[in-house]
Amino acid sequence: MQLGPYTLQNYSLFQDCKDDEVLRFLTCVMPREAHWSKGAVLHQQDHPLTDILLLLDGRLALTRIGASGQEVRAGDLETGALYGQATAFSDDQLEGFSITALTEATTLAFPAKAFYQQCANTCSAHQKVIRNMIRDLARQAKVLTNKVGYLSAGSLRGKIALFLLQEGIDTPAGDPFTLRYNREEMAEALAVARPSLSRALTQMKEEGLIDYDRKVFRILDPTALEVMT
């Protein structure tokens, strides 16, 4: 189903939904579409967030001002991301991050009750969308678990080894696989400085442990990488 230029079934929230099911769901819950210019603040840290946001287009940054007054960038949201479930379903609904548009962006805001209260007809549209939302929440939890693993890996080389082993988990040793991250995003995921990451990758390549060209990597010695973790 089209919503302006957007085909909603291309987003994980509406996976496996037919046009008429998407239409029934939207008619029932009445989400709010909003367009944001680059630099616009969608939400302020420590304010209630009662909606769940679907990012139709663009890129958003999650930032937080710490006790020291320094702003920390916790991550980015890409097109298709669903955000706000944990906050909207919590008791106080206070969101811990500010949300800022890194590019022009378009969002759909759904009231949280749309995902825990089915319509009177208990239609298939609600069942499918709720299932997809839970699946997305589980994926986010897995990403967070992986990030905790990177942070607990110890050395920088250990973090890189764990990261690459997980990214290439379905790829046979020596075969190429493409990362979802550029170097800056990889450094952010591992909570390390980008220059330090680049030096460590270069050393591991020179030692014959890995090979890479931009985002395309090959793990040449998986046993050695597993020992590092």
From TrEMBL:
<dbReference type="InterPro" id="IPR014710">
    <property type="entry name" value="RmlC-like_jellyroll"/>
</dbReference>
<keyword id="KW-0804">Transcription</keyword>
<dbReference type="GO" id="GO:0003700">
    <property type="term" value="F:DNA-binding transcription factor activity"/>
</dbReference>
<feature type="domain" description="HTH crp-type">
    <location>
        <begin position="154"/>
        <end position="223"/>
    </location>
</feature>
<dbReference type="InterPro" id="IPR000595">
    <property type="entry name" value="cNMP-bd_dom"/>
</dbReference>
<dbReference type="InterPro" id="IPR036390">
    <property type="entry name" value="WH_DNA-bd_sf"/>
</dbReference>
<dbReference type="InterPro" id="IPR018490">
    <property type="entry name" value="cNMP-bd_dom_sf"/>
</dbReference>
<keyword id="KW-0238">DNA-binding</keyword>
<dbReference type="Pfam" id="PF00027">
    <property type="entry name" value="cNMP_binding"/>
</dbReference>
<feature type="domain" description="Cyclic nucleotide-binding">
    <location>
        <begin position="13"/>
        <end position="136"/>
    </location>
</feature>
<dbReference type="GO" id="GO:0005829">
    <property type="term" value="C:cytosol"/>
</dbReference>
<keyword id="KW-0808">Transferase</keyword>
<protein>
    <submittedName>
        <fullName>cAMP-binding domain of CRP or a regulatory subunit of cAMP-dependent protein kinases</fullName>
    </submittedName>
</protein>
<dbReference type="InterPro" id="IPR012318">
    <property type="entry name" value="HTH_CRP"/>
</dbReference>
<dbReference type="InterPro" id="IPR050397">
    <property type="entry name" value="Env_Response_Regulators"/>
</dbReference>
<dbReference type="Pfam" id="PF13545">
    <property type="entry name" value="HTH_Crp_2"/>
</dbReference>
<dbReference type="GO" id="GO:0016301">
    <property type="term" value="F:kinase activity"/>
</dbReference>
<keyword id="KW-0805">Transcription regulation</keyword>
<dbReference type="GO" id="GO:0003677">
    <property type="term" value="F:DNA binding"/>
</dbReference>
<keyword id="KW-0418">Kinase</keyword>
